[in-house]
Amino acid sequence: MVQSRRRANDQPKLPRSESVAARTRRLAHERTLIAEARAELDAGQGVSGEVLEAWLDKLDGEEDLPIPAARTSL
What we know:
Number of helices: 2
Order of helices and strands: HH
Distance between the termini: 59 Å
Number of strands: 0
Helix content: 40-55%
Radius of gyration: 22 Å
Structural class: mainly alpha
């Protein structure tokens, strides 16, 4: 029985459902989304973890809740 060995420069096999071109487009899109999110956080358009957790805890109740406002300093 012959076993194949991967070499250091071999690319991992992609799932059959995603071509190399599709993967490249997806990763580029994900990088864009991450950059946009970082820019929003740098501009102070984020919500602190404490505020978000308190808001999520209140979701168990029956009251309608406004979306937490962004803070200028996290």
